[in-house]
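Example: Acetate kinase.
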Amino acid sequence: MSTVLVVNSGSSSLKYQLIDAESEESLATGLVERIGEPSGHIRHRGPDGTSERSLPIPDHTAAFRAMLDAFAESGPSLEDDPVVAVGHRVVHGGKRFFEPTIVTPLVEINIEDLADLAPLHNPANLQGIRAAKTAFPDVPHVAVFDTAFHQTLPPEAYTYAIDAQLAERHRVRRYGFHGTSHKYVSEAAAAFLGRPLGELKQIVLHLGNGASACAVDGGRSVDTSMGMTPLEGLVMGTRSGDLDPAVLLHLARRAQLGTDDLDELLNRRSGLLGLTGHGDMRDVRRAAREGDENARRALDTVVHRLKHYIGAYTAQLGGLDVLVFTAGVGENDAALRAEAVAGLEVLGIRLDEERNTASSGDTRVISTDDSPVTVLVVPTNEELEIARQSLQAVGAAG
Ligand SMILES: Nc1ncnc2c1ncn2[C@@H]1O[C@H](COP(=O)(O)OP(=O)(O)O)[C@@H](O)[C@H]1O
Ligand SMILES: CC(=O)OP(=O)(O)O
Ligand SMILES: [Mg+2]
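Written out as structure tokens, the predicted fold is:
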């Protein structure tokens, strides 16, 4: 048996999965969390169940080492079944990368060069790549970019209306993110419904820690809510999403905030965290249930923004066949799904309350049988998509 190891390095976490290259079976999964905090945590699920451990994990190099230790202790062995490729999620590929790419030293430099356009993500992605190359020096490493699926955005969707030459010089345009997830989920939705992908107008709502909406027309991304960086669009765990750019000017002038302060404010101390003190949706829901008015208002703001994009993308697509919820919040928070589509019967969206609240981890329909728009929950699997694309890239190169 040969396997693919997939590494998804986030700003403070490292998710991994070992996947059988032929059967696509998941052989092990794991999550290293709270990297850089006083005490980190690793949870590894292998053939013998789940093992957990708390230990200091200063950076992604240490996180990668903790992952290797977990494989050595709890299996499966990474030596018995050869790893034929290591697939890496890389968030920003700029204009340069729109295909899965074998990581060479030059590719590493390019990923580093794009770090200021994805400050929470690209540096962590690169640390993961370097640690993995040290551990697996003889295996091809493949970068799969979040931006790649959005290469099909038309100019009118990726253009910001500022000085065109300045924008060109500084690479200012919409790139879009979560593309690996939007691609996987929109294809899985079509397959689940047994309908041709090429004929479907879909909106995918990827609602995780980071969140983005994508309008998918016949399998191609035609609009998406994240922009030059993963900050624009929906309200997220710690990110503000859309705001009037003049807010920055106002805060710079009146609150004496510098560029680093503003970066920190909007990327790490806004969104749910900024509104409620909780960055995790489960905590916000709990607070709202207990009568916390800030939490209730935050949820209403999240929902208001979601409706804004559902309406906008239905218009951009010229109609809608399928609306899909995915990622941590989208897959698990039935109340949020119900609130997001409440009152959207005018767009042909009719939710079935019972289907929506039934607990299941599988792909499922949650709209009524007579709903013109089919509403689905589709669990995303970025790791499987990265494994597939990594094998393609290795096959193409070899
Ligand atoms: N049952 C649930 N109800 C509401 N939110 C949930 C639930 N389970 C997970 N989440 C939320 O999902 C988010 C994480 O989603 P995930 O897709 O794993 O994000 P990421 O990949 O960006 O880390 C967290 O905000 C978490 O609170
Ligand atoms: C691009 C992005 O926001 O990713 P994540 O949701 O993993 O933070
Ligand atoms: Mg994610």
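The first helix runs from residue 60 to 74.
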